[in-house]
Structures are given as structure tokens and as C-alpha cells.
């Protein structure tokens, strides 16, 4: 058998030659076997042999998992740390059988990268886009991209104008970045910049001319709209028609959008309050209702607790912050919500536990769901 020559460039669909992956099995069969191992066990797998370690970090391996419909739903967490060179993006790892929680180690940021402390994040495929990287005062137009498969950073296409106080969401495969630029006297003129990965550049979509933002806090996708919240109001944006309207008052029934996150699953918008109570709002009737079966299973909530929510495979993944004995503690839970025949929402906490503790004063960042 001739040895593999490194100088020969193969098409991406052809399996590279790493040596024997599993003795007694052809490499293509061994690759399909290894692709079925959950990512939780990949650190152990990579220590078995050098060929397996090379396979686990190759494009061919991730392509095999994708074609075999073996992608997993993962959660990444951003934590604004004191060290500017430490990667603020952390992989949340949850073992489904033992309910063991941990944060997987991540490589440091490149020295040439500005601070990520005030960036907004959005995920397209297996890549996380850090938007408005750098100056939190005057804003930034820099974009950096973290490839979760290979754990590498690269510079992305710059925005057209610097933005600050940015909030970003993904809709129909595009990134919608809402924020202030200070470039014009009309704050709505450049309030929204949109990135299309197919053509690879940003464009500006003008907003309402009479926009008045007081503490712009959150954006969330609800059905075929994007809802933007600030302290005393908000806007609804329709991406397909590129039109705007005022946020319905029924959706603004609690004051502190900054602390308490929201997410949408199957047409229902979810949020928590500072006491651990969970609420749901059907986008059709737009009425907030408390969801029973959740509050008694969550510990560590207090009035100042911050929460973040995301959709994880049809369940609400919740993370909340608590300060205790000079430390900041992050706890998380996974909640399934069922709708009764009468239209009522009932919650079931599948698990809840402490994830990690940090020195006092750290803020809860952003949860980023990714599938690859």
C-alpha cells in the first residue's frame, strides 16, 4: 500500500488518509462509527490515537456527521472576563444521563483581536459572529468569526458603519444587527444593518424617523417578525417586507428587559421574573400567563437575578445568575412546556443544577444555540 502524499490535494468529499483509525475496519466504516459518538466523549476519543485525533478535527468528519444527520444541539455561553485575551465564548457541556455540567476549555483569542466584552453574538451554521468588536463608547464596525468545529478565529466582513449597544438575531439565514451609530441626527436611519453570508457583505435598512430609544435592551425573533425592546417601548420589524410598526403594548408588561431574557418556541414567547416565575405569551392572543410547575424547582433566584433563555431542541434552556458569599454563580435548567387541550401552558423541569462559580461581579453574557 502506497503511503499518502501530503502534496496531493484531494477534493473535500474524498476521505483523507490518516492511517488506521480502528484496526480491522476500513477507514470509511470506522469514520461512520466514530461520527455516531456524542461530542461529550470526543476529548476521550482524541486521546486514543493520533489518527482519531486528526479525524475529529477534520472537515471530512463534520461533513460525515452532517450527511448522516448526526448533528447535535449545543449551547455556547459568552462570559465577559477580565482578561481581554481569554476567549469569552465557552462551550456548555451537559451529559444527558448523569446531568453533569461543565464548561469545556476553549483556545485563547488572537492577540490582534480587540476586546469582545461589549460585542453582540449571532450564529450561522457552525460559526459564531462577534459583532461590533472593540470600542464600547463610539462603537465598532469590526466583525470576528469563531468556527466552533475547529475552534479557530478569523476576521469577518466589516459593518458599513460602527455600531454600539448592538443586539443581533438570525432570521432566514441572515444576521440582523440593531444598534446606534451616532453617524446621523436621525437615529433610525442606520439603526439596522443586515449581513447576508451568501453575498458576503452588509447593507443598511432604514428604520422609523421618529424612533426614540431609551436603554435599548433586547431583540427576539417571534414568528416572522423581529421584536426590539427598550425600557419604555419598542418596534416590530418584518424582514420579508422590510416594514416597521410599534411594538404592541401587551408585550411590554414588565419593566426590566435588560435583566430578564426571552425566547420563542412554536409561536409562544417565554420569559422569567426575578422570583423564578415563568410566563408565556402566545403570539396570537398576546396575553402573558404564568406557567405552573417551574418555580418550585429553581433555587437561587432573587430580585436582582439576571436570566437568559434559548430554544434548545424545542425546550427552554434557562440560565440565571446569583451572587452568594462573594461569588457569582451561574445555574441552568432545561424546561419542557406542554399545551393542554384548553390552551393552558404547563411546565416541567427536566433538570436544574449549578454550572460554575466566578469571582463576584461578573455579568451573565449571551446564550448561543448551535447545531453541527
Can you walk me through this structure?
This protein has 372 residues and is mainly beta. The chain is built from four helices and 24 strands. It has a four-stranded antiparallel β-sheet with strand order 3-2-1-24, with no helix packed on it. The chain has a four-stranded antiparallel β-sheet with strand order 4-5-6-7, with no helix packed on it. It has a four-stranded antiparallel β-sheet with strand order 8-9-10-11, with no helix packed on it. It is globular. The N terminus is likely disordered.
Break the fold down into its secondary structure elements and pairings.
Layout: H1 27-35, H2 42-46, H3 50-56, H4 59-67, E1 73-78, E2 89-94, E3 101-104, E4 120-124, E5 127-131, E6 143-147, E7 152-155, E8 164-171, E9 174-180, E10 192-196, E11 201-205, E12 216-222, E13 225-230, E14 233-238, E15 243-246, E16 262-265, E17 268-272, E18 278-282, E19 288-291, E20 307-312, E21 315-324, E22 327-339, E23 345-359, E24 367-371
Antiparallel strand pairs: 1-2, 1-24, 2-3, 4-5, 5-6, 6-7, 8-9, 9-10, 10-11, 12-13, 13-14, 14-15, 16-17, 17-18, 18-19, 20-21, 21-22, 22-23
Amino acid at each position: 500500500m502506497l503511503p499518502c502524499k501530503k502534496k496531493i490535494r484531494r477534493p473535500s468529499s474524498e476521505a483523507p488518509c490518516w492511517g488506521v483509525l480502528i484496526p480491522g475496519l476500513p477507514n470509511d466504516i470506522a469514520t461512520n462509527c466514530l461520527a455516531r459518538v456524542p461530542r461529550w466523549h470526543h476529548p476521550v476519543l482524541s486521546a486514543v490515537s493520533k489518527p482519531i485525533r486528526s479525524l475529529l478535527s477534520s472537515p471530512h468528519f463534520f461533513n460525515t456527521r452532517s450527511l448522516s444527520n448526526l448533528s447535535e444541539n449545543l449551547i455556547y455561553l459568552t462570559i465577559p472576563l477580565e482578561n481581554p485575551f481569554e476567549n469569552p465564548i465557552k462551550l456548555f457541556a451537559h451529559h444527558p444521563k448523569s446531568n453533569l455540567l461543565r464548561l469545556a476549555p476553549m483556545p485563547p483569542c488572537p492577540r490582534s483581536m480587540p476586546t469582545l466584552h461589549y460585542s453582540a453574538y449571532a450564529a450561522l451554521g457552525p460559526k459564531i459572529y462577534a459583532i461590533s468588536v472593540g470600542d464600547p463608547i463610539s462603537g465598532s464596525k469590526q466583525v470576528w468569526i469563531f468556527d466552533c468545529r475547529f475552534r479557530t478565529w478569523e476576521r469577518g466582513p466589516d459593518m458599513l458603519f460602527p455600531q454600539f449597544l448592538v443586539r443581533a438575531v438570525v432570521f432566514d439565514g441572515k444576521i440582523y444587527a440593531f444598534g446606534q451609530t451616532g453617524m446621523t441626527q436621525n437615529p433610525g436611519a442606520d439603526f439596522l444593518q443586515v449581513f447576508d453570508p451568501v453575498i458576503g457583505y452588509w447593507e443598511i435598512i432604514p428604520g422609523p424617523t421618529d424612533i426614540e430609544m431609551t436603554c435599548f435592551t433586547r431583540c427576539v425573533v417571534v414568528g416572522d417578525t423581529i421584536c426590539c425592546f427598550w425600557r419604555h417601548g419598542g418596534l416590530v420589524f418584518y424582514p420579508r417586507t422590510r416594514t416597521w410598526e410599534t411594538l404592541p403594548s401587551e408585550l411590554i408588561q414588565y419593566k426590566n428587559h435588560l435583566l430578564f431574557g426571552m425566547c420563542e418556541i412554536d409561536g409562544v414567547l417565554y420569559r422569567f421574573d426575578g422570583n423564578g416565575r415563568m410566563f408565556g405569551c402566545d403570539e396570537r392572543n398576546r396575553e402573558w400567563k404564568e406557567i405552573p410547575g417551574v418555580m418550585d424547582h429553581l433555587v437561587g433566584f432573587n430580585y436582582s437575578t439576571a436570566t437568559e433563555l434559548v430554544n434548545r431542541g424545542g425546550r427552554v434552556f434557562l440560565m440565571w445568575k446569583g451572587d452568594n458569599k462573594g461569588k457569582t454563580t451561574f445555574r441552568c435548567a432545561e424546561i419542557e412546556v406542554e399545551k393542554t387541550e384548553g390552551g393552558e401552558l404547563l411546565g416541567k423541569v427536566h433538570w436544574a443544577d449549578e454550572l460554575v462559580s466566578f469571582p463576584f461581579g461578573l455579568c451573565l453574557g449571551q446564550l448561543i444555540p448551535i447545531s453541527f
